[in-house]
Each structure stands twice: as C-alpha cells, then as structure tokens.
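Possible regression after last week's pipeline update?

I re-ran a chain I had predicted before the update to compare outputs. Posting the input and the new output here so someone can diff against the archived version. Not blocking, just want to make sure nothing changed silently.
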Amino acid sequence: MNFTADTVARVAAETQIQARMKPSYVARLPVTKPEALNVAKAVPVAPATLSVQAKAPEPVVAPPVPKFTHKVAVDAARVRSGPKKGSPHVFTLKNGSWVTVSENVKGWMHVKDEQGREGWVHSSLLRESTPPPQAAGTLAQAQ
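New output (post-update):
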C-alpha cells in the first residue's frame, strides 16, 4: 500500500486518540503576518460623544463682615500679649484702625484687628465707634 502525506494526515485527524496514547507528531500553527495583528487598524474606531450635564455653579458665599466696634484714637497703639503694661509688645495699630473688642479686664481690652491679629490694648487708646456699612464692606474685601 502506498500512503501519501495527505492520506496519513487524514487518517490521523479521523482517528480518535485514546487517553493512554501520546501523539507522535507536533501540530504547527499557520504563520500570521504582523499586519494582521494590528488591532488598531483592523477595528474601526468612531469618536465617542459624551453627554455632559451642565452642573449648576456653586454659590459664592461671602465671608461674614466683621463687626468692628472700636477705632484706634491715637497715632499708634501698642498691642500687648496680656492685659498689663508690662506684657510683651506684639504689634502696633495705627490711628483709625478698626478693631473688635471681645473682653474688658480692668481697663484693658482684648482686640482683634482687620488682619485677624489679636492682643490687648488699654481702653484709653480706643474710641467706641461703628463703621459705616460701606466701610465695613471695604474692610472685609481688603482681607
């Protein structure tokens, strides 16, 4: 009997392999060209359309306007770290500076200025006053 390669291949393909048998041949896969592996060229890509819902802008909340209660009545007022003349000097307030007084201890006032700095000033250096609404808004914007 003459067997050709095609006949052997056909018989091998049709023959069922038993669990104990090991194949005596190696299957070869077809060679693929590199161009065929380029998925970006093979798959058409359409630009995506995104539907973005317009989000309402967050409301702008203005910082609370400080309630200034006193004004510096002298050319320069030394602000101290404590309610005593011997307490260390922290900073100086100029004439016309607005401050908020939160406490009074034996004539010494605990103040907070326009920049948020705090300390103690003797009450004789301050004058009770309320800034006009326009000035209060200007002071808040300056911060």
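Follow-up from reviewer: compared with the archived run. The longest helix spans residues 5-14. Marking as no regression found.
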